[in-house]
Amino acid sequence: MPEKKPTHERTLSDQLTDMLAQEIRRGAYPVNARLPTEKFMMEQYGVSRTVIREAISRLKSAGLVDTRQGSGTVVLDPASSDVFRLGTPDEDPARGVLRIIELRRGLEAEMAALAAERRTAQDMARINQALAEIDHAVAKNGDGVEEDLAFHIAIAQATGNPHYPELLGMLTRALKDAIRVTRGNEARQEQLANQVRNEHEAIRAAIERRDIEAARTAAFHHMLSTATRIQNVDAEYWQGSNRAAAGRLARTRLASEIRKSK
Predict the structure, then answer these.
(1) Cβ-proximal residues to 65 (8 Å cutoff; 6+ apart), any chain
(2) What does the DSSP assignment read for 139-197?
């Protein structure tokens, strides 16, 4: 069991996640073994229960562990985890966000096009509901991050190709950080918030009328506009939680690419 404890140079959740991930990858916790209890890890690492649970949630998103009723948190095979993993920090807080937006640009455009071609009435109902939930969250002074992600996942499901929602599931942490940063910026100005709402509506409407090219174009335009809004952010914005989220994105690289390079 590692004796090293997290420091405060980065968030405790970031550090604990990385430490546990490293232990899993080097075999300290074998496949199908259970991770120690929350109480044990709280004492071992000197952190709160909230930090432990956040770290476990991130490991689960990374495909390194799974929580099973009656068995606790079980270690999965790290070799089968082709998901995002943190790498070397980047000094530019905006760069990580823009890289994720670039990655999403083609993905979102093709998802929207396929959704327009293949969506069912049930798919459309989910997309409509997801978009309404964003408005509802914002009206209640929420950040709308979870709801925004749900909107894009609903579109992924409407493609009829299970690999799209699976891929978004693999990228959940990175997407949440990117959406949190971009929505936080957009919420500062009503004009920007309205732009985002209109862009989402354009995607939704094109999918509903089964206009494949319009859906592709609307989704691509949404990503381009999101990148432009981030590029125009003032330096003061990149502080606090925004900088932390952007920093995680700036350190991101594909685990599958890392393994191939070894």
Answers:
(1) 24, 35, 56, 59, 73, 74, 75, 76
(2) HTT---HHHHHHHHHHHHHHTS-THHHHHHHHTHHHHHHHHHHHHHHHTTSHHHHHHHH
This prediction has a pTM of: 0.60
Low-confidence residues of the chain, pLDDT below 50? 1-3, 7-9, 82-90, 249-262
The count of other CB atoms within 10 Å of the CB of residue 106 is 13
Phi then psi for residue 68, to 5 deg, are -125, 135
Is residue 29 left, alpha or beta, with left meaning phi > 0 and alpha meaning psi from -120 to 50?
Answer: beta
Contact 107, 153 (CB under 8 A): no
Q: Report the distance separating Cα 255 and Cα 86, nearest Å.
A: 9
**pLDDT tens digits along 38-49:** 999 999 889 999
CA distance 104 to 116: 18
Distance CA(93)–CA(100), nearest Å, equals 12
User: Mutual orientation of helices 145-158 and 163-170 as an angle, nearest 10°?
Assistant: 150
Amino acid at residue number 242: N
pLDDT recorded at residue 229: 77
Which is it for strands 252-254 and 84-86: parallel, antiparallel or unpaired?
antiparallel
Angle between helix axes 212-231 and 93-118 (nearest 10 degrees) is 170
Name residue 86's beta-bridge partners. 252
